[in-house]
Amino acid sequence: MKLNEKRIEQRLSKLSEFTIPGSPWTRRAFTEPYARARDWLEHEMTIAGLTTRIDHGGNLIGTLPGTNHALGSLASGSHIDTVVDGGRYDGILGVVAALETAQSMKENNYQPHHNIEVIDFLSEEPSDYGISCIGSRAMSGNLSSDHLQYTNASGEKLHEAIRRAGGTPEKIQNACRSKNELAGFVELHIEQGRVLESNTKKIGVVTNIVGIKRFEMIITGRSDHSGTTPMNLRQDALVGASKIIERVNTQAKEYQTTNGYLVATIGAIHVRPNAVNAVPGEVRLTLEVRSDKQDWLDHFPEQLITFATKACETERLQIKSRQLSYMHLTDCADLVIQTITRSANTLDLSSMTMPSGAGHDSVFMAQLCPTGMLFIPCLDGRSHCPEESITMEDAINGANVLAQSILSLDQRVEK
Ligand code: GLV
Ligand code: MN
Ligand code: MN
C-alpha cells in the first residue's frame, strides 16, 4: 500500500505549528493551542473519511469501519500534547502516521476486516494536574475518582479540564474499553535516545517499556528575613532540598553498576517565597524514578525517602511525600513484536529490538490488547527539547512499517 509521503510531511509541519508563540514547541494539554490543534486534527480525520468522536475520557478517535465488527478494532495512535519547550515530533508522528494508514487504506480501496481506529490520546505528557497518560488511563480503567480531583496551580480540577477537552468525567468508567473490543494496538514514536543512531539501524522494535513512579515532596521550614536571621537560627527548606537532590543523583548512579536500568530525576522545583531577600520557607520537588526492574522501582524511592526524612530532621525541617503516579513495567506482545520485525524486513529496513526508557500510552493499552511499539531514530537522541529533530526519510520509513504491520495484523484472520 502506497502512503502519501507529502501529506505526512505537511501534516507533521502543520500540527507542530500549533504552539505558544515564542516558546516552540509548547502545546500543553488543555490549553488553547492544544484545543485548536485538536479541532484541526478532527477535521483532517473527517477529510480522510473517518467517523470521529471524543470518548468519555477526552480521547479523539477516528474510525474506518471494517467488514467484521466482531473481530474488534485494530488501533494505532499516540498524543499531540508536548512538554514545555518540547520537541516537534514526540507524539505527533504516531498520530499522523496512524491517520495516514487509515486514509491510505480507504484511498487504495482496501477494506479492512477490523475497524481501524486512529487515536489521539488526551494528555500523554505529565499534565499540570499531576498525572500523565490521562486518556489512555481512562480507556484502560486506570483513571480513578481520586485522580479526577487532582488540581492544577490555578485550582482547576482534572474533571473540569477533561470536560473542557470534550470528555464526560461523570461517565469516566464508560471510557474503559472491554478487552474484546480491541484486537491490537501499535504505536509509532521517535526513539528519544541515541541507540538506533549509534547502531545505524532504521527501526527499533520495542520489547518492553520501563516502569515509572513519580512522587511529590513538600519540605517545610520557616520563611524569614534573609538579612536579619543568623545562619544558626534558620530553617531553610532549600538547604534540605539540595541534600535530597544530590542524594538522588548519587543513589541512582549506585544502581547503574549491575544488570538493569534505573534513572532518577528531580525535574521540577518550586520555592516559596522565591525572593532574593527571603529564607526559603517551602520547597516542592518532584521525584521521578524509572526502571526495568520491579524491585528497584520499589526500593529506590523507599531508600530515598528514608534519607530525605533524616536530612530534613537534621535541618529542623518537615517533609511530606506522596506518590503521584505509577506506570507499570510493560512487556510488548510477541505477536506485535514479530509483526513489526517482519514488516521492517519486508520493506528492507534494518531493525533491532530495544527497551523503551520513555513512557507511552502503549503501557495502558497493553492492559487491553496485544500491544507493541516501533521507534525511528531522532537526531543526536535529543527529545523533550526544542532541538528534537528527525529526517523525513525516517518518518516515512516509520509510517510504512506501521502501515505494513497494521495490514498484516488485519490479514491474520484470513490465514
Ligand atoms: C514521556 O514522554 C515520558 O515522560 O517518558
Ligand atoms: Mn514526551
Ligand atoms: Mn511521546
Keywords:
415 residues, alpha/beta, Aminopeptidase, Alpha-Beta Plaits, 2 domains, 9-stranded mixed sheet, 4-stranded antiparallel sheet, 12 helices, binds glyoxylic acid, binds manganese (II) ion
Bin the strand percentage.
Answer: 15-25%
Number of helices: 12
Would you identify the CATH H-level superfamily of the largest domain?
Answer: Zn peptidases
Stretches with pLDDT under 50, minimum 5 residues: none
Report what the structure shows.
The protein has 415 residues and is an alpha/beta fold. It folds into 2 domains: 5-210 and 330-412, Aminopeptidase (3-Layer(aba) Sandwich); 214-327, Alpha-Beta Plaits, CATH 3.30.70. The chain is 34% helix and 23% strand. It contains 12 helices and 13 strands. The chain has helices spanning 5-16, 32-47, 92-107, 134-139, 145-148, 158-164, 195-198, 237-255, 294-314, 334-346, 362-365, 392-411; strands at residues 51-54, 60-64, 73-79, 115-121, 182-190, 203-209, 211-220, 262-272, 282-291, 318-327, 330-331, 351-356, 371-376. The strands form 2 sheets. Strands 1, 2, 3, 4, 5, 6, 11, 12 and 13 form a 9-stranded mixed β-sheet that branches. A 4-stranded antiparallel β-sheet has the order 8-9-7-10, covered by helices on one side. α8 (237-255) packs antiparallel against α9 and α10 (334-346) packs across α12. The longest helix is centred in the C-terminal third of the chain and has 21 residues, at 294-314. The structure holds glyoxylic acid and manganese (II) ion (2 copies). The site of glyoxylic acid has 3 residues, from loops.
